[in-house]
Design brief:
The protein has 706 residues and is α/β, with parallel strands linked by helices. The protein contains 24 helices and 26 strands. The strands form four sheets. The chain has an eight-stranded mixed β-sheet, with helices on both faces. Strand 13, helix 14 and strand 14 form a beta-alpha-beta unit. Helix 3 packs across helix 4, helix 9 packs across helix 15 and helix 13 packs across helix 16.
Length: 706
């Protein structure tokens, strides 16, 4: 009956979402009423709404756990619940009718899997794909894949390994370890993993042994910007709920909106405020920590966090300076941001880790500058929107310092406000949904109908280019390169970059760089074959490096290199399985470092570039060696390889190909290549220099043929 009621018949795509955690309903979600009724529900409902705009050819169903709770309301027992003509919520019974906290959901999974299978078999059309939200839902998706052959995509929303690394060990370690084991299983079996940020894709998933970078897609969620741009009014209720706590309500507010859970670090924010008399003098602190009744009636973690917040207010004697309103509705949030904007305030999110940071976009769309944690997705958001400052969430003085920088410098505040308003439109649900559906379409298309493996075409020669300052820098020149590749279809085009896979795909998309046939990433330590121009299908070259881990001792290398004065490690996300990366401002130290490694029998390649970046890789691993590996697979001779670059990390590949092209804007690290007769030093910069080198080679070849 459900399939007839909601029209699930003869549709082009049927997406089934599974989201077991929290109190999910179609309207008026009581965010914060339980620890797991948070951002993932907002994300899912807005995703469903965005996909719904594509019309009846896409049908959606959200599977949630059914429960009956006098405290939470009877609507979470009702099924089905209509969202639209093309989407609905179906509640599946578990082992009990009681509400079950997220930590205990794993005990319900066998019964939920059985009942979900019964439900799917009752439909006239089974889902084309399942989208699992959190690892418990991922376990159900694994079962449906095994029993019914339905592929699935996975969105973690938050990851246990990240929580374990950011919060001290506690009595919940057993629960956390069980969660991480589930996540490993889901990551290993997912057909696609959808992440919100580069940090999540590379650093956070990098903590899992089963992670496969080639199936991870960074697709930032959207934000309904219209809700936050200049609301018509700020309600008197909002002002009253805030002002009754404050001695001087006219001061600009430091605003925070977050669930009362430890990882949101609201206590750290109060400590930073309490330890800074200057900040207390300049502004009030206003924290919306979910919706609460009596604190003692809350679940354990929210109760503990809220109690700690009140104790800190008392410890630092912040009465009259800190507001902790007890309740707010979802529809109040735009007015809360707008109130802070009109008062010249700052929005602060100093979570210990923030997988994405939707509140930062809401603040940006309201014109409100932000201070954000430097751990997680805020790096991407502030990098694009430039609407505030990043900070170490564990450093109280740093937090208060950057807040003050925005509050007291009106020019900085105005620039951040304008920049956020201008740039946040990138984070639209329309863009997200288009990429999302394209991905799902690819993952539900039979392999036989996809584009053939890139190694099949017969290529006569190969062009490999660095990205930064070789291809980037001149968009018109990129169009010329695209034209050259179009009229030379027998030339295999590849990328060789110091960037990671996700970083490379991001910059290629930003610059509309022609899709390559292969990607050599992380200074040559990884190779990926590109089997779809939209990067929906990537294949890791498991034969590279050819020796695997044999002989590579990264821990010993790190111990030796880090002992040198002036050497500091680069960020964790820059470290790869076969690459150790450091900062070093003195190129003169490189021979000394290399000699010391050799003395200890640590065979390696040392690559230095841009006067500061030092990379150590296994012996026989570099951009140049990776190019030879690719050329061998494609049957291309070294003499028929062109490579273009601009800096020191391109040296190996430029020395190891038949036709090196050095673009006009190259660094001094490549000057020595002038002694090599094959080298072509272009007069033009960026991609124009690449095209110049290719044309020069064609002219020489024509002359020789004549």
């Amino acid at each position: 009956m459900l399939d007839r009621m909601f029209g699930f018949s003869s549709v082009q795509m049927f997406i089934m979402h599974i989201a077991l955690q929290g109190c999910l309903r179609a309207q008026n979600v009581p965010y914060g009423v339980t620890p797991d009724t948070g951002g993932h529900i907002k994300y899912l409902l807005e995703l469903v709404e965005a996909v719904d705009t594509h019309g009846p050819e896409v049908q959606q169903q959200i599977i949630v756990r059914q429960f009956n709770s006098a405290r939470l309301g009877p609507e979470f027992y009702t099924t089905p619940e209509r969202i639209s003509d093309n989407a609905n919520i179906v509640r599946i019974a578990g082992a009990t009718e009681d509400y079950v906290a997220k930590e205990d959901l794993r005990f319900e999974l066998p019964v939920l899997a059985k009942n979900l299978e019964v439900h799917i078999r009752s439909l006239s059309q089974k889902p084309d794909i399942i989208h699992a939200h959190y690892a418990d839902a991922g376990q159900l998706a694994i079962e449906m894949k095994r029993r019914l052959g339905i592929p699935f995509v996975f969105t973690a929303h938050s990851l246990g390994c990240v929580k374990r690394s950011s919060i001290a060990a506690s009595e919940s370690d057993q629960v956390l370890n069980a969660r991480i084991a589930m996540e490993e299983d889901v990551i290993a079996q997912a057909d696609r993993i959808i992440t919100s940020s580069m940090d999540e894709a590379e650093l956070q998933y990098g903590l899992y042994q089963s992670a496969r970078p080639e199936i991870i897609r960074v697709n930032p969620p959207g934000c309904d910007l219209d809700l936050f741009a200049e609301p018509a009014y700020v309600t008197e209720q909002i002002k009253g709920d805030r002002d009754k706590f404050l001695s001087d309500p006219k001061k600009p507010p430091i605003l925070a909106i977050a669930r009362p859970v430890a990882k949101k670090n609201l206590a750290g924010l109060i400590r930073a405020y309490g330890q800074s008399p200057a900040l207390q003098e300049a502004a009030n602190l206003v924290i919306y920590a979910g919706t609460r009744g009596r604190i003692d009636d809350e679940d354990r973690e929210p109760s503990a966090v809220l109690t700690e917040l009140l104790k800190l207010v008392d410890e630092y004697d912040l009465w009259g300076k800190v507001a902790l309103p007890k309740t707010h509705m979802q529809e109040d949030i735009p007015s809360i941001y707008q109130d802070a904007y009109r008062c010249g305030g700052v929005f602060v999110n100093v979570a210990l880790n923030e997988p994405f940071g939707l509140t930062l976009l809401e603040a940006a769309a309201s014109g409100l500058p932000v201070v954000a944690t430097d751990s997680g997705g805020p790096n991407d958001i502030l990098g694009r929107c430039k609407n505030g400052l990043l900070v170490d969430p564990t450093e109280s003085k740093a937090i208060s310092g950057v807040i003050m920088k925005l509050l007291v410098n009106s020019d900085r505040w105005e620039r951040a406000s304008r920049s956020g308003l201008d740039a946040c439109e990138f984070y639209s649900w329309e863009r997200h949904a288009d990429t999302y559906l394209s991905d799902l379409e690819w993952n539900t298309t039979p392999a036989a109908l996809r584009r053939s493996d890139v190694t099949a075409p017969a290529y006569n020669e190969m062009l490999v280019c660095d990205i930064d300052n070789t291809l980037t820098g001149d968009r018109k020149a990129l169009e010329q390169l695209q034209q050259w590749l179009t009229i030379n279809p027998t030339t295999a085009f590849g990328i060789a970059t110091g960037r990671s896979l996700q970083g490379a795909m991001d910059i290629l998309a930003q610059w509309d760089i022609p899709a390559p046939q292969f990607l050599i990433t992380s200074v040559g330590s990884e190779i990926y074959w590109v089997r779809d121009p939209l990067f929906r299908d990537l294949k890791r070259d498991m034969g590279w490096p050819p020796f695997g881990d044999n002989g590579w001792k990264p821990l010993e290398i790190d111990k030796v290199v880090s002992a040198f004065d002036g050497v500091t490690p680069q960020a964790t996300k820059e470290q790869r399985r076969f690459k150790k990366s450091y900062f070093l401002n003195e190129i003169e130290r490189c021979p000394e470092i290399s000699s010391r490694l050799e003395e200890l029998g640590l065979m390696h390649e040392l690559i230095y570039s841009h006067g500061q970046f030092l990379d150590i890789l296994p012996r026989g691993v570099s951009k140049g060696h990776a190019i030879h590996h690719v050329a061998a697979r494609l049957g291309i001779k070294t003499a028929d390889i062109w490579a273009a670059g601009d800096s020191g990390n391109d040296v190996h590949m430029l020395e190891m190909v038949g036709h090196p092209i050095i673009v006009g804007n190259h660094t001094s690290e490549l000057e020595h290549l002038k002694a090599r007769p094959q080298s072509y030093f272009a007069k033009l910069n960026y991609a124009a220099g690449v095209v110049e080198g290719l044309m020069q080679s064609a002219a020489v070849a024509t002359h020789n043929d004549g």
